[in-house]
């Protein structure tokens, strides 16, 4: 058992296959030289399913196919994911390949096609080598490839580490588990980034409530992170709820609804923060809190403006308490605010009060900016709107990675 | 005489003091260790004046004072500019300092206060050392400090070079000159960046037409450049037209209106491009052209989205023909478009045709991406909207400069 949270426990070594009736695995099918590059998640029974997808106009082929699958009955039983190639901007051939990938996988797993989802991440504009994929898919039932940690590895691109979690909570006296895995790294920005998130739970919940909840939570978690302001063609978050915990069906009227909601939010927020922390070239996680805005929406716009600023991000990389750049980012957010009421904190240190500098200990500020988690708080003093966003610093390493990713 | 343009000549070594009746100068007053840090422009007679200002909510004190000056009679006769300290987020004391700076300068130049404008650029949140400024201002009439090149130097911050130009055109048979100077470097983004632009002309034109024209041209020049997406608190562009060329007053009905408009646009565009080319850490100028969008506004949004993408900018820095990042930036622009009609060129090289990859010579593309001016063209095929934006690559040097600017 991990940390005690209010209504749930983090399960030590918990992952996407911890909830009852779920399995996951990964193998190397040859899209990458050595690294595992094909992963899958499977539920023993069809699960209620919900998805959120990139807002990019160039939505990749696998997203179209997955949306079709879910549209049929709002259920999924199996998800397959490849890294290395995004199958985006690949025209009709790419769409056909995504259908074929789904078909092959569904047949191998023995599920109906519309119960299978596909996801891809990696280079844009290249066709999937279908022979390699086919060979890989034919092996997904081999015992040796099972293991959630293999799934976590298979979906990574330039990520430096696996991202997984599971928590346990009690609903109707039954133990319910929520687990998840994600990948991120570059092209990470609000409204779905180059990120994939997969969440599994054995909770019993209807798909329409699952869909509404996922959307609301995504807006406060995955959509509140940024690495570089680029929103990719391939992002999606899927949740599968297979009901194996046998709780009474969850609806907003259920007495334990809040517990479930907070638990799901915790898992999504955890994965989102792990993505931000592991942003390309990142050396620290940055959390921006905005309070006292006219509305929550306005606070969201301001938080995103700060977390997206290259100048704020390089200042943090240099551990320079350059609050002028934070003020500037607030000012160009396009949100309405009273400049003379704005106060800014770096960690606990007040650096701007009511729009003008407040004397502060530079050394103490520098120390905070060198911590693994840097916190910026902007108090606007206008009303009660609030929001939180996460991101990372901008380093030489980011430039190195991205000046040479493809070649 | 420089290059032959359609209706005007670039004047060799022309600058902000080339138009009849203008002078400029610069000196060291001690805001910076050694570099010249105080500059001014003066017209022998009051000039019609127009300004555009940052859209940042935290508008710096000098912008408020300058807007007050112009509001009085739409005229200016003298402009003073300091670098090193932005006089932004400095509260009431900062506003008083900006008024005092204007007053001291106006008295020294022998002009009425409302005919003087003030501008500042540099660190946010520090008060101007008024004694040093006062001493500097007292010397602005000394012959030794005259010279447009001194003005060009005085207004720079992290810029690596001076930015000036003048052109000559003919209106009513009279020779009219338009000159300008600018500074940029960091915090450069559409809607006025950390940039200052000053344009002088001896044309005879009414201030209301000058204002309308400046706004229209700024939207196609200074507001179409980006270095890092950050819009500063201090940006402004001022135009002074003193009428010394003695042409018949210019209005849109004047037979030579187009000539004047194109000339002013050329000067603003030239200065804007010079700012982009000299962006912090930049090694090349990037020009993005978007054609065939549903509207010009939509083309503008797409061009800005491409030019602002860190991933596009790092790919160009690495001379990597990674068009997937360009497609991605088009896709998340939020503008409506048909993804299946989009074609992309790097220089003359077609790399994407109707939404799917077009085979191309990687070496030739790399060669183009290594040129001093990189061109990206997106043809959308939807209608006739078009726009051009300018920016630069994103280098290690950008991170170095900005991780240590303040300390």
TrEMBL record, chains A, B:
Binding residue positions for substrate: 157, 183, 194, 280, 402, 407
Catalytic activity, EC: 2.3.1.35, 2.3.1.1
UniProt pathway annotation: Amino-acid biosynthesis; L-arginine biosynthesis; L-ornithine and N-acetyl-L-glutamate from L-glutamate and N(2)-acetyl-L-ornithine (cyclic): step 1/1; Amino-acid biosynthesis; L-arginine biosynthesis; N(2)-acetyl-L-ornithine from L-glutamate: step 1/4
InterPro entries registered for this protein in UniProt: Arg_biosynth_ArgJ (IPR002813), ArgJ-like_dom_sf (IPR016117), ArgJ_beta_C (IPR042195)
Major localization listed first in the record, in broad terms: cytoplasm
SUPFAM superfamilies: DmpA/ArgJ-like
Name of the protein: Arginine biosynthesis bifunctional protein ArgJ
